[in-house]
Amino acid sequence: MRLDEYVDIEANERAERRRLAKEKSYAIMDQLERFQHRFDEAVQGDSTFGSVSPSIFVGSGNYPNVATGILSPVGHEEQADRFETSGAWYDEGVGIEDVFQRRTSLLNSNQATDVRRVGADASTSVHDAWEGFVGVQREVAIADRPVSVEIGLDGAPEIDFDVSDDDIATPTGPRARAESAALGENPHVPRPVKKTLEDDDWQAQGAMNYLYRRGFDVYEINSILSAGALGRGENRRLVPTRWSITAVDDTVGQFLRGTIRDTPSVDSVQVYRNEYLGNAFWVVLAPGQWEYELVEMKAPGSIWNPDPQAGLWMSSDREGYEGRTGYVDETAGAYYAARLGVLEHLSDIGRQAKVLVLRHVSDDYWGPVGVWQVRETVRNAFGDEGAEAETFGDAVRGVTEHLPVSTNDLRRKSGMVSGLQTNLADFGP
Fold first, then answer.
1. Are 1 and 388 in contact (CB under 8 A)?
2. pLDDT band for position 15 (50/70/90)?
3. Is the domain of 290 the same as that of 417?
4. If 356 and its partner were Cys, which of 254, 284, 384, 415 is the partner (CB 3.0–4.6 Å)?
């Protein structure tokens, strides 16, 4: 299929998705009020309530003394699995409002904990902590389905009814300090997870890749890592959720890059496109050894470039055949999430390629939902046939016609595009 035909088809589909998305709308204030009513009904007089927890959260503030919590969908226990971030959210087609609603329905019952040692006297290593709050949290993280828990709280949740732009920009659930936690059932733990737990000499990277090869998705692995359940026994510790997500994306990405090191190259220039939640991704695969670059273009009025008068913001990071030795400078977790989606595709088809990913963040992206939407949008970009171009330069110029930048603008930011020969049309209108 030619690139211009592919773009026309995609444009029609995008218009339909936008029309359907506008049919959904949730009032922030109403959602918070509904949560309070559900919480008041669920909590007993001694501030103890029973729920079903699908996931955990470990904060990064004040590291290594962090807030570590159990997430519970108050009033939605029978649908607890729908509140856990996963690729199923993309399949379901959740919108930004949907994400906000689900996250504000999750009560984060948390305690302040050292990431290495727990207990009142800090005498128990995280590795050995199978009792108390941290022990229950780990049981939730390693189980393969939501777990029944009973949580004792020290007071009511913190619910801010003075909704500001910050609340809209960062949708998080109400928080409450937990006094205690107990399991309401024996969680079911998959055999591969038990194996990683029992091997105290297994480095975290090897354990992550083992679980991935056994069919665990990165969402499950980062939860297990975050709970301090992977790595050599003496080195195990709680890992802030935000860090664990990127660590797993990076580790699995490096493993997948290893699977394509000696594979043949793609034999033509291929272009794929996908759009979700106001983020459009163009993926260009070109013949050659592995090389990867992510270029982000953030529209004024979008969440990461909120000033409508600020002009377009561009950022980029890249790597060559041997990968990177340090963390990226400009694109943060999106770099590793997008790279994972590309490498999964290349590993599946047994090919390697030069890869350019162009991300356009429009002003429809009014609230950050997390890098899962980057990962899933790129993963699903390869579901269709895509388009072909004669050369890498033709592909870049063709794609740029549908971006808010000229090829010359892109050349100044992208190492992969900078080598293209310039022509007059590259400067745009």
1. yes
2. low
3. yes
4. 284
